[in-house]
Design goal:
475 residues, alpha/beta, 39% helix, 20% strand, globular
Length: 475
């Protein structure tokens, strides 16, 4: 992370994230770290509470994801499903302990965060505050209850994956009397997404970016609270329909005829989707996209451990603001960005400088500047890093003159040469909303002095979410 031109190396105290208390919570952490990435995923968050003359921490939720205006609250409970021989009674008892209590925890966490977003802590002693600001009024809350041990019993009784069935005719927790069937726990409050072991794995491993995951939750909530009767054999059946259809805005959505007031999704949509040749080709094509994840996590690691160099202002919030642009990209977009980095690294010798600018695919997304800068053996590490940083900043300034409409510009730089064993990375962010005539004159002078983007080569391409394959069965 680099927005300074000196060799100063600021440090801050490490951010100590909990590992989770129970095996289920630790497993949830691993899944969420992979999907939402480590800088935005925090297990076992607390609030400060007075007890006599002391302050003690009371758990707010089992895992909290804060990503800009999107806040995901996870309430994770492992309750053994009873074995009494009376299924209806077993379901009632299990539902009360595993679902109802977890839902109340999630709603309580939402109320607290809306009211006291500055009073969140990462430890029970309330000594380490949540590392960056948490929005409250403008936040979009997504509440997720994870209930363990039910998928096993559901599969045993009904067959299939074990995913809980969905029926919107069930409204209110007291009306959930049919075993393994979930509706709307309280239509007056924020919607609760109930996931079991089976659906948790499917959702977090399929929608494995913050943007893809939250987009699905929003569309699902809209569908289930649309007033239509929706019945599905499992969460994955809903997901399959969502992933194969697009609305008029080019977004994944649940696209059903308006005149349909009752929609029933039987088992089989998900199995057909995951075996479709285009889906299999998508999974293979996505391999390169995880290069983008690893790049983000390189910065995240140093941010969480307080070891980031050349950062100004010297705070984790500086890194978080910049990395959030990278982490907001969808899996398909990351595929294209990862390939761009892979290609420029492979095609640039260690002694050559290379520059590439990637324009956004959506309004409001940033322009990316990728810079490869050769290391001079005649100069020190600090001198090389400072020179590269200054050149990267100049490239970002010049990018604004080439693309006047650009509002957010993110620059990423590293050493030239694909086999560099001591690679380092710099990042620069420019908020170009207040770009002045003086800024423009400075940028144009740098362009002429350094020869940046004087005669750029333009390349265009399109990334298909589902690659074309020789099949008559398209998604």
């Amino acid at each position: 992370m680099a927005q300074m031109t000196s060799s100063e190396k600021p440090h801050w105290s490490p951010i100590k994230r909990s590992e989770g208390v129970t095996p289920a919570e630790r497993y949830l952490k691993r899944l969420c770290d992979s999907t939402f990435l480590t800088l935005w995923s925090y297990p076992t968050v607390y609030r400060d509470q007075r007890s006599g003359t002391h302050t003690i921490g009371k758990e707010v939720c089992d895992l909290l994801v804060v990503f800009g205006e999107d806040i995901i609250i996870f309430s994770d409970k492992y309750c053994s499903f009873p074995e009494t021989g009376n299924l209806e009674l077993e379901w009632s008892r299990w539902f009360r302990h595993a679902i109802t209590k977890s839902a109340h925890q999630a709603w309580g966490a939402e109320r607290w965060i809306r009211s006291y977003p500055e009073r969140l802590f990462l430890d029970g002693g309330c000594t380490q505050r949540f590392p960056f600001s948490v929005p409250s009024r403008q936040a979009r809350f997504h509440l997720v209850v994870v209930a363990h041990d039910v998928a096993r019993r559901c599969a045993q009784e009904l067959g299939g994956s074990g995913s809980l069935m969905i029926d919107t005719d069930l409204r209110g927790a007291s009306n959930h009397c049919i075993p393994f069937m979930i509706g709307d726990l309280d239509p007056r409050k924020s919607f609760i997404h109930v996931l079991d072991d089976a659906s948790l794995n499917i959702l977090l491993q399929t929608l494995d970016t913050i943007s893809d995951f939250t987009a699905y939750l929003r569309k699902k909530e809209e569908l289930l609270r649309s007033g239509k009767t929706i019945a599905a054999a499992g969460e994955e059946e809903l997901l399959a329909c969502y992933l194969k259809d697009m609305n008029s805005n080019g977004e994944h959505d649940f696209v059903f005829p308006e005149e349909f007031n009752c929609i029933i999704l039987e088992e089989g949509f998900w199995k057909a989707f995951e075996k479709n040749p285009q889906r299999l080709a998508q999974i293979k094509a996505n391999d390169v996209s995880y290069l983008w994840d690893r790049l983000i996590e390189t910065f995240n690691y140093n941010a969480l451990n307080g070891t980031q160099e050349y950062c100004w202002p010297a705070a984790v919030t500086t890194i978080e603001t910049t990395m959030r642009f990278l982490a907001r990209e969808s899996r398909t977009r990351r595929r294209m960005l990862g390939r761009a980095i892979e290609e420029i690294l492979a095609s640039t010798p260690p002694n050559i400088r290379a520059l590439r600018v990637i324009v956004p695919s959506k309004i409001g997304y940033p322009y990316y500047v990728f810079l490869l800068f050769p290391v001079s053996p005649k100069h020190s590490y600090e001198t090389n890093r400072t020179a590269r940083l200054n050149y990267l900043k100049a490239c970002c300034q010049v990018t604004k003159t080439k693309f006047p409409e650009a509002l957010d510009i993110v620059g990423i730089a590293t050493e030239s040469g694909i086999d560099n064993q001591s690679r380092s990375e710099d990042a620069v962010y420019i908020n170009a909303r207040c770009w002045t005539d003086e800024n423009d004159r400075t940028a144009r002078a740098l362009q002429q002095e350094l020869g940046i983007l004087v005669s750029p080569t333009q390349m265009r391409g399109m990334e298909r979410e589902y690659p074309d394959v020789a099949t008559s069965n398209s998604i």
